[in-house]
Design goal:
The chain starts with a helix and ends with a helix. The longest helix has about 35 residues. It has eleven helices and no strands. Helix 3 packs antiparallel against helix 5 and helix 6 packs antiparallel against helix 10. It is mainly alpha-helical and about 250 residues long. Its main location: membrane. It is a multi-pass membrane protein. This is ABC-2 type transporter transmembrane domain-containing protein.
């Protein structure tokens, strides 16, 4: 257990504390989108609709921040570790590969929680979004959990090849997923075929769960099952890709 916490501390230092610009942009972009869309897309809205929009878009930008850090940052961080032979250090150290991935997940859980706090402060101060303290704590706990399937996707992307391929795939995953699942624009304005895709994405299930918590509504079984199925698919996908990579390495020996 001490080895695991030591690995977590190393990851915090090399991913966040030695790269504070990354932390700034990871939080600043969703905040900028939140301020833009809550001030531009609110023309002629009634007071009740505006209140709901401000809180719902807060959730959307929290999920968008989690999506970026879980896919783009996870994929590029793991790829850098592969190219710089840091993963070889993991093989030779007492840390297992499972603990290595788990320590990464702890770091990116913290990033998701940072997005909740920073966006929550902006939403509260700028748009007067009011959420009870208990609800804040629940959201702070739930957002990292709903990002698990997204982190699994990021791990899978990191296993696909070179930096060019990883960067291309990261962008092809993040931005279409953000649009299709309604994180940028409401699903109501999208064509039916895109709605059918968007309502089955992990980001849609995650935002639906958090919105239900904020509005004190019941959470549907479909939402829980959707997140669970995506998590299982992600875990299985990682195992298959690792198995495939190992077979390739054995063939090249």
């Amino acid at each position: 257990m001490n080895n695991f916490f030591y690995q977590v501390s190393i990851n915090f230092q090399r991913i966040i504390f030695r790269n504070l610009r990354f932390l700034f942009f990871n939080l600043a972009l969703p905040i900028a989108f939140y301020l833009l869309f809550t001030k531009v897309m609110t023309y002629n809205m009634s007071a009740d609709a505006l209140t709901a929009w401000n809180s719902d878009y807060f959730v959307s930008m929290v999920l968008y921040s989690s999506l970026m850090s879980s896919v783009i940052t996870v994929a590029n961080t793991l790829l850098d570790d592969q190219e710089n032979s840091f993963d070889l250090f993991i093989v030779l150290s007492p840390i297992s590969r499972f603990q290595y991935y788990a320590s990464m997940i702890v770091v990116f859980f913290t990033l998701s929680m940072s997005a909740v706090v920073s966006l929550g402060i902006v939403a509260s101060l700028v748009n007067h979004v009011t959420i009870s303290f208990i609800t804040w704590l629940v959201v702070l706990f739930i957002v990292p959990l709903v990002s698990i399937p997204l982190i699994f996707i990021g791990i899978m992307v990191s296993l696909t090849g070179t930096s060019n391929v990883v960067n291309l795939l990261s962008n092809l995953v993040v931005f279409p997923m953000a649009i299709a699942s309604g994180l940028w624009w409401p699903l109501e304005i999208m064509p039916d075929w895109l709605k059918a895709i968007g309502t089955n994405l992990p980001t849609y299930f995650g935002s639906s769960l958090v919105k239900a918590v904020i509005h004190h509504q019941s959470v549907s079984i479909q939402t829980i099952l959707g997140l669970l199925i995506w998590s299982i698919l992600g875990f299985v996908g990682i195992r298959l890709l690792l198995h495939f990579r190992k077979k390739q390495e054995l063939l090249t020996i």
